[in-house]
Amino acid sequence: MAPRSPSKAAARSGGQGMVASGLASISGKLFPETRQLIDSADEGMEEFTLTNTTVASSLPLQMLLYFNIHYSIFWTFLTLAIMIYKDTYLGVNSAYRILSPLLLSVWCLVEPLRLYFGYVGNLQEKVPQLTGFWLFTLLPQIPIAFFFIISLPLRITGETTSGGEVIQGSIQLPFDRAGSIVLIVMLGIEAIVGYIALRVMVKSQVLKFHLQRTRDEGAVAVGKQANRV
């Protein structure tokens, strides 16, 4: 097996570092309390080694993420099948024909990254990654889900009656409506629970930071006192 190229490994690690620093910058602007943590990380301080502290990970959010993974796969294939059916048998208008595949493609690209950030941020208590999950939930996933709801009363380009007259029609597919409504409800709950989890995690990280600093300052003071003796 050929060894991995150092240049490729460096490029990958560099890209991950840029993403992490970008998320950290965004989380610092949204939650000013984390600025001390970010500045300490920039100064090369070691990670917190405190034990017996309260776990800040959110169990409700983790359960939502678990169900969301399975439902996102189901919803994607359902929407794709209905989209093909509409385009093949219903003669949809050009706007729907262009927007639907485009938005579904954006959804498929963003959703795995969003869920990954949610899992990593929640389980490992990483505020930047959880912030990325929350932002991706608000934009673009919720607006895309809204689009597939408001486009349900689909306008057909034209339908020929028995008399040869072309009329405009509309149709609603119940599976489309039900699937999109469940999705938007799930995303809305994730946005609320995710924000609450972020606030709890930020407070926990700030508390750990101050406890770590107090412990380090106490250790330094004890060391100086011992040297004097």
Automatic annotation (TrEMBL):
<protein>
    <recommendedName>
        <fullName>Transmembrane protein 17</fullName>
    </recommendedName>
</protein>
<feature type="transmembrane region" description="Helical">
    <location>
        <begin position="178"/>
        <end position="198"/>
    </location>
</feature>
<dbReference type="GO" id="GO:0035869">
    <property type="term" value="C:ciliary transition zone"/>
</dbReference>
<dbReference type="InterPro" id="IPR019184">
    <property type="entry name" value="Uncharacterised_TM-17"/>
</dbReference>
<keyword id="KW-1133">Transmembrane helix</keyword>
<keyword id="KW-0472">Membrane</keyword>
<feature type="transmembrane region" description="Helical">
    <location>
        <begin position="132"/>
        <end position="154"/>
    </location>
</feature>
<feature type="transmembrane region" description="Helical">
    <location>
        <begin position="64"/>
        <end position="86"/>
    </location>
</feature>
<feature type="transmembrane region" description="Helical">
    <location>
        <begin position="98"/>
        <end position="120"/>
    </location>
</feature>
<dbReference type="GO" id="GO:1905515">
    <property type="term" value="P:non-motile cilium assembly"/>
</dbReference>
<dbReference type="GO" id="GO:0016020">
    <property type="term" value="C:membrane"/>
</dbReference>
<keyword id="KW-0812">Transmembrane</keyword>
<dbReference type="Pfam" id="PF09799">
    <property type="entry name" value="Transmemb_17"/>
</dbReference>
